[in-house]
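Bug report (template v2)

What were you trying to do?
Predict the complex of my protein with 2-acetamido-2-deoxy-beta-D-glucopyranose.

What happened?
Run completed; filing so the output is reviewed.

Input:
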Amino acid sequence: MWGFRWLIFRIMLGAGLIKIRGDRCWRDLTCMDFHYETQPVPNPVAYFLHRSPWWFHRFETLSNHFLELVVPFFIFLGRRMCIVHGALQVLFQVVLIISGNLSFLNWLTIVPSLACFDDATLGALFPSGPGRLKDQVLKIQEEETRGASAPRTRAGSVARGTVNLALGILVAWLSIPVVLNLLSPRQVMNSSFNPLRIVNTYGAFGSITRERTEVILQGTASANASAPDSAWEDYEFKCKPGDPRRRPCLISPYHHRLDWLMWFAAFQTYEHNEWIIHLAGKLLANDAQALSLLARNPFEGRDPPRWVRGEHYRYKFSRPGGRHAAEGKWWIRRRLGPYFPPLSRQDLRGYFTSRQWPYPEPE
Ligand SMILES: *[C@@H]1O[C@H](CO)[C@@H](O)[C@H](O)[C@H]1NC(C)=O
């Protein structure tokens, strides 16, 4: 249990520290003005929470700091405070689950948060009274203690104590670089410090993007990509924003990994994300496996596109009840420019060969 408590302590404190070190908006309390719109894969709740009054966003940011920088210390302040810590952490994670598609991260974080709840606390969840579940368990426990032979119990508890102590010393020893990292002004997130990759450091993102941009993949059947009359059609992803009229998805704890990667790609360039060119090549061949990761292929049942390009757009939530929302738009988007230029299958031959990727052949 102390192993789990130590784990949740450093997860939360690490996340809190990397934030105040990493981004000004955590210090001037404006981060939540941006977070709902710019998080990886917003959901419909985020759409509405984004419009909360400014003081509510300040309150949210302050609450985040309280939960990540103060509440973790409750673990070491006795049984009662530890339970308060557990309850607050579970509540915090549930709020995060409701307000965004952060995959399984929050569900996973709930697990070590439960380590503060002892039998007496959890007992409240089960029916009591003669013959009910709690009563039955107590009887089983009594019989076990009476039935077990004394020497075996003693040997067992010595062995268990020794293993626990050894594990405790090991974790304490492996925690030294983790604690040094927590104290360091150049704190890193998500890193391992030993070859066995145990007792690592985890952390949420320190910085918040201020603007949401999206890469929109498009294809055309036109022979000439630069002809003004060539019709470009959008590929639609399963969850990430694309068609402004499509409602944001609600998918937690499921994780659409490609959609998540597209979020990173959008604030970098295609040179940082060569896999996106790989994907473009697959789309140029109507590759069934790649298309199974997308929600809509505009070239379904047709020849593959002659050209595929990536366009860079800026996305903002429409205002609930506003003009765009009345037109059925959840998003307002504006084109920023190209993300990668129109590519044909022939164009990609050299690129694929030099990276030893199998050259996509239409099926
Ligand atoms: C493609 O279209 C552009 C713009 O209309 C034109 O300048 C160019 O010559 C065309 N290319 C070919 C190969 O037809």
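What did the reviewer find?
The chain has two domains: 2-125, 212-354. Residues 281 and 348 are 7 Å apart (CA to CA).
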